[in-house]
C-alpha cells in the first residue's frame, strides 16, 4: 500500500534524475572537474556552470515558496535547522572534497560514470554507500563523531532565531522581524552573487553547452522541490501519515546523492521490502539510467577499470571520505551545493566552500607530488599549496610552483 | 600519425590525472617537440582541449579507436 501512495512521486523523482544524468553526461557538467579546471588550468567554465545552476535553483525556490508556500522549515535533510552544526558542515565538506578528488568525481558524477561503464566508479559507489549506511543506519556516527562534534553546534533558537536561513540570520543581525520582503531581498542578493560568479567567467559565457547544462540542472533541482513539496507532494506526505506501514524517506526534499547511496544499499539488502524505495533511491537509479541511455545513444559507453593497485587504494579512500564526509556535511556538491543553497541555508554555503577547499587542496598537493616525482613530502606540498592560495606568507613556501 | 618524442599512457586513469600528467609532461618539453597521449576517459577529450587553450600549445591530431583516445600535442 505504501508504494502505491508514493508511486507517482517516485516516478517523477526518477525522471528528473534521469534528465540530470543525461544532461550532466552530455555537457560534462562536473563539480570536481570544475575545481580541477580552475586549479590546474585557470579555466572557470565548469565552475561557472555550477554557480549558474545554483542561481537558477535559488530563484526557482523563491518562486515556489511564493506560489505554493513550499514548506522548507522541515526538509530531508533539515537544511534550515536552527541547530547550526558548523563543524559538521566544515569538516564534512573538506572530507567530501578530498574524497571526490581521489575518487574521480562527486556522488552524482560517480553515478554518471557508472552509467558510462566505469567499474572504478561502481567500486566507489559501494564503498561510499557502505560508509553512508554506517553513518545513518548504525551507531557509527554516535561513536566516532557525536561526542566531540555535537558540543560545538550552536542552537540559534536560544537567541530566538528560528532557522539558519539567511533571512532569519539577517533579521536577527539587523534587529528586525523576518518578512517576505527581507526573504526576497536576501534571496535575490544570493541569486545575484552566484549569477555574477557564473557570468564573470568568460570561459562560461562562451560555452553554450554549459550554460544550458547548468541551467537545466538548476531547473531539475527546482522540479525536485516541487514534486515533493508542492500540492501533489504535500498530499502524499499527508496520506502516508495515515498508513500503518509507512514508506521511508517521504518528505519535502530535492536531489542529493550521498545519503541515498546508503538507502540504496539498504534496499539492495532487502529487495522485497518496497517501503525502502525512497525518493533518493530512485534518484540514484535515475541518474545512472539517464547517463547510460546517453552513453548508448552516442556510442560512448566504455567499460573502464583500475590502472593499478595504487589506483584501487586511491578510489577506496575516496569513497570512504565521500560516504563519511557527505553525511557529516548533510549533503554533497549537489545536495548541499545546489539543493541546500537553494534554501538559503548558511550551513549549505559553508559546506559548499569547504568542499571546494578540500578538492582544491587535494588537486594542488597531488600536482606538487607529481611534479617533484614524489620527492616532495606531503607537508612541503601542503605548505606550498597554502602559499599558492595566499593563505600563508611566501616565506613558508617549501617548493617552487611547478 | 605525427612523429612524437614523448608519450603518456593515461589509460584507465580517472579525472583529473590524465590532464595533470599531460600538463606536467608538456612543461618539461622543448618548443617544437610533440607528445602522444593515450587516454580512456571520454572526459579527457574536453579536459585536454581546455588545457591546451590555457597553455597555448597545439593539438595536431586527435582520434579514437576502440575506446582509446589519442592526442598528438605540439609544444609551442
**How does the helix and strand content of chain B classify structurally?**
alpha+beta
**Rg from alpha-carbon coordinates of chain A:** 21 Å
Report the end-to-end length of chain B measured between terminal Cα atoms.
19 Å
Helix percentage of chain A: 55-70%
What is the element string of chain A, with H for helices and E for strands? HHHEHHHHEHHHHHHHHHHH
So how many helices of chain A? 18
- The side-by-side strand order for the widest beta sheet of chain A comes to 1-2
Which geometry of chain B do the CA atoms define? globular
Q: Say what oligomer this is.
A: heterodimer
| Strand composition percent of chain B | 25-35%
- Proportion of strand residues of chain A: under 5%
**Main pleated sheet of chain B:** 4 strands, mixed
Q: Uncertain regions of chain A: pLDDT < 50 for 5+ in a row?
A: none
| Main sheet makeup of chain A | 2 strands, antiparallel
Rounded mean pLDDT of chain B is 90
Largest interface: A-B, 33 and 24 residues
Verbal overview:
The complex is a heterodimer of chains A (402) and B (76). Chain A has 402 residues and is mostly helical. Chain A has 18 helices and 2 strands. Chain A has helices at residues 2-27, 31-41, 45-68, 86-102, 107-115, 119-137, 140-149, 166-174, 180-199, 202-205, 208-229, 231-241, 259-269, 279-298, 309-328, 335-340, 346-371, 378-388, and strands at 83-84, 154-155. A two-stranded antiparallel sheet of chain A has the order 1-2. In chain A, α13 (259-269) crosses α14. Chain A is globular. Chain B has 76 residues and is α+β, with helices and mostly antiparallel strands. Helix content of chain B is 32%, strand content 34%. Chain B has 2 helices and 4 strands, in the order βαβαββ. Chain B has helices at 17-27, 43-55; strands spanning 6-10, 34-39, 58-65, 68-74. Chain B has a 4-stranded mixed sheet with strand order 1-2-4-3, covered by helices on one side. In chain B, α1 (17-27) packs parallel to α2. The two termini of chain B are 19 Å apart. The chains are: A mainly alpha (402), B alpha+beta (76). At the A-B interface, α2 and α17 of A face α1 and α2 of B.
Amino acid at each position: 500500500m505504501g508504494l502505491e501512495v508514493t508511486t507517482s512521486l517516485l516516478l517523477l523523482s526518477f525522471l528528473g534524475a534521469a534528465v540530470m544524468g543525461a544532461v550532466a553526461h552530455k555537457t560534462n557538467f562536473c563539480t570536481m572537474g570544475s575545481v580541477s579546471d580552475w586549479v590546474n588550468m585557470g579555466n572557470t567554465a565548469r565552475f561557472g556552470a555550477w554557480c549558474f545552476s545554483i542561481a537558477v535553483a535559488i530563484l526557482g525556490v523563491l518562486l515556489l515558496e511564493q506560489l505554493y508556500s513550499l514548506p522548507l522549515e522541515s526538509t530531508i535533510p533539515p537544511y534550515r535547522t536552527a541547530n547550526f552544526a558548523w563543524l559538521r558542515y566544515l569538516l564534512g565538506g573538506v572530507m567530501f572534497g578530498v574524497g571526490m578528488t581521489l575518487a574521480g568525481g562527486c556522488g552524482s558524477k560517480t553515478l554518471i560514470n557508472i552509467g558510462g561503464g566505469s567499474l572504478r566508479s561502481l567500486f566507489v559507489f559501494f564503498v561510499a554507500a557502505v560508509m553512508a549506511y554506517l553513518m545513518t543506519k548504525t551507531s557509527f556516527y554516535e561513536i566516532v563523531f557525536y561526542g566531540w562534534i555535537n558540543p560545538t553546534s550552536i542552537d540559534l533558537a536560544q537567541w530566538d532565531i528560528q532557522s539558519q536561513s539567511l533571512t532569519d540570520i539577517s533579521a536577527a543581525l539587523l534587529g528586525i522581524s523576518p518578512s517576505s520582503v527581507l526573504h526576497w531581498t536576501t534571496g535575490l542578493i544570493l541569486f545575484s552573487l552566484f549569477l555574477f560568479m557564473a557570468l564573470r567567467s568568460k570561459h562560461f559565457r562562451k560555452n553554450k553547452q554549459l550554460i544550458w547544462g547548468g541551467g537545466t540542472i538548476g531547473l531539475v533541482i527546482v522540479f525536485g522541490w516541487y514534486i515533493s513539496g508542492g500540492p501533489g507532494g504535500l498530499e502524499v506526505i499527508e496520506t502516508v501519515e495515515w498508513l500503518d506501514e509507512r514508506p521511508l524517506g517521504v518528505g519535502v526534499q530535492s536531489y542529493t546523492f550521498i545519503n541515498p547511496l546508503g538507502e540504496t544499499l539498504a534496499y539492495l539488502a532487502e529487495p522485497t521490502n518496497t517501503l525502502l524505495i525512497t525518493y533518493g533511491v530512485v534518484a540514484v537509479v535515475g541518474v545512472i539510467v539517464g547517463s547510460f541511455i546517453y552513453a548508448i545513444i552516442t556510442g560512448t559507453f566504455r567499460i573502464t577499470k583500475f590502472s593499478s593497485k595504487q589506483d584501487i587504494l586511491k578510489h577506496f579512500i575516496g569513497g570512504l571520505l565521500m560516504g563519511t564526509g557527505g553525511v557529516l556535511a548533510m549533503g554533497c556538491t549537489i545536495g548541499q551545493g545546489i539543493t541546500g543553497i537553494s534554501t538559503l541555508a548558511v550551513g549549505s554555503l559553508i559546506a559548499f566552500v569547504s568542499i571546494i577547499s578540500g578538492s582544491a587542496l587535494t588537486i594542488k598537493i597531488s600536482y606538487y607530488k607529481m611534479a617533484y616525482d614524489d620527492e616532495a613530502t606531503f607537508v612541503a606540498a601542503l605548505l606550498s599549496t597554502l602559499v599558492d592560495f595566499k593563505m600563508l606568507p611566501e616565506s613558508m613556501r617549501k617548493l617552487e610552483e611547478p | 600519425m605525427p612523429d612524437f618524442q614523448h608519450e603518456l599512457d593515461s589509460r584507465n586513469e580517472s579525472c583529473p590525472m590524465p590532464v595533470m600528467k599531460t600538463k606536467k609532461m608538456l612543461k618539461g618539453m622543448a618548443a617544437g617537440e610533440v607528445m602522444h597521449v593515450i587516454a580512456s576517459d571520454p572526459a579527457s577529450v574536453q579536459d585536454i582541449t581546455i588545457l591546451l587553450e590555457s597553455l597555448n600549445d597545439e593539438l595536431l591530431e586527435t582520434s579514437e579507436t576502440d575506446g582509446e583516445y589519442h592526442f598528438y600535442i605540439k609544444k609551442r
